[in-house]
Amino acid sequence: MQDLIIKRLFPEDAEHLSRLLTDDDSAYGRFFTPFASDAKSLSATLASVKQDRFWGLWFNETLAGFFMLRGFDEGYLRPSFGVYISPNFSRRGLSKLALEYSMSWCRLNGILKLMLKVHPDNTFAKKTYEQSGFRFLEVCPRTGHNIMEKTWDGGK
What we know:
Blueprint: E1 4-8, H1 14-22, H2 27-31, H3 39-48, E2 53-59, E3 62-70, E4 80-85, H4 94-108, E5 113-118, H5 123-131, E6 135-139, E7 146-151
Parallel strand pairs: 4-5
Antiparallel strand pairs: 1-2, 2-3, 3-4, 5-7, 6-7
Helix pairs in contact: 1-3
């Protein structure tokens, strides 16, 4: 039996993260472009993190996916959730696990809202987000992705 481990990502994980992001030529991989995916750029991104969070999903010492909450470092109170799972590990519940982990982390830290963007053709993800209580807000004018938000008690 192998263990699934969730741990924060740091600059020394940049090579693994780069490999994860660049080894995918699927449609999903082409739509996921939050930042440059080369190891040097990723190392710099991870080194610059102050309050944002990047976590890796490790299975058998392989980075199966990662997820993040970004926006804190730019002063936003409502972070943006992002998740990327390797096609080799898709459809095994890791995206949902990442979302649940992120929502729990937010609640534990007194964060009352969470937003995300999802490509309009990613019907599986949209359904997952809707089932988790996210609601459509608007279409991002820059990317054309749907912007969705979840608010907990006390959030406006």
